[in-house]
User: Fold this.
Amino acid sequence: MPTASPPTHIQTPHSEPNEGGATVSSLVDAALAANPEITAMRREFDAARARVPQQKALPDPMVTFGNNTQGNPIPFSGLRGDFSEIYAGASQDVPWFGIRRLRGQVASAEAEARFQEYAATVRRITAEVKMAYYDFYNAERALAVIKRDGDILDKMAQVAEARYSVGKAQQVDAINARVEITELLHRQGELEIKRSTALAQLNTLLFRDPETPVGALAPVRLSAEPPPLEELYRLASENAPEIQQQRRLIDASSRAVRLAEREARSPEVGLSFTYHNRPAFPDYYTYGITVRLPLYAATKQRYAIEEQSANLAAARSRLASNDNLIRNRLRDARVRAMTTARLIRLHDQGLLPQATLALESSLSTYQVGQVEFLTVLTAVRRALDVELRYYELVADYQKALAEMERYTGVELSR
Assistant:
């Protein structure tokens, strides 16, 4: 597709793209480096990943130390009695076979889901930066067009006033020119509001002061048309972080159900060893095994199984919901992209050159008195409307591609 540059009539520095200006890719990189939401999501993923070895580890062992005394409650007194002793021991709880492995798998799947949430945030911020950039680009180019056409109307008003002063034109021509200039000032004010809003949104995503200037913008080149809808669906199914996150959560919930079932029917074993020192008798040792039995599974572990089963069902439903939502958004974005692409071609191949030719012809013929002033005003108004609509279409097309990028993971806009 061609460069999204202004029509050729009355070119000025305001309407020419700046080759060395800020690009959308440079602003995306700046946002990904500075945006605190992305940093927060990354740290949450790091925290979730750090839970994996904790869940796989054995419980902390316990160490005991004490003494038994006879006839005196003061510690370490009466050590010569028949029942006096000093003892030291250690104990270790050991979960049943497979439980630690399942706990680690649950934590690992949850960490992977956190990573996909982080990736979804990166994709969303990237798309939002691009959309704000294209809105800002649209407002900047539209303001340049209005400035240029305002200069044209001002010169026309001067010509009309000069012709009126010598009796070659009516006073209404000069008045109509000034009215048209006032209308342009009104549209300029509306566009300045849009530009300010887009700039504030862009700076917010870049974690900067809302009033920070972006500088001159690099030219926007229209990207290629998006792939077919079925290909977009396939890419989204493989790459969309929102879908991958739910798949990881389904995996985590499935393993959590197995873990709850294992804990409901498996004991937890404790091993202990104690050394006893008795001054009056030989030393001796004790060994022990404790077993924690799930005797209350009907009122405790059974509900843990129900809890995890409900979480699993919710994750599956959420996956179906997200998949349907993403498909609808992709379809809508592609329809908008294809429609605006067709309208851009219509402007490139017909409306823009025709409106430019009509304006240039009416300007030259009015100066020699061959057409009425109203004809010139109509040509100016039509050329202005066509060009403003062109830049709006360019922005809408690129924004639709940016929205599709968010879910497909494939760069479609530049």
The chain has one domain: 13-408. Residues 1-18 have pLDDT under 50 and may be disordered. DSSP finds eight helices and four strands in the chain. The beta strands are 62-68, 85-94, 268-277, 284-292.
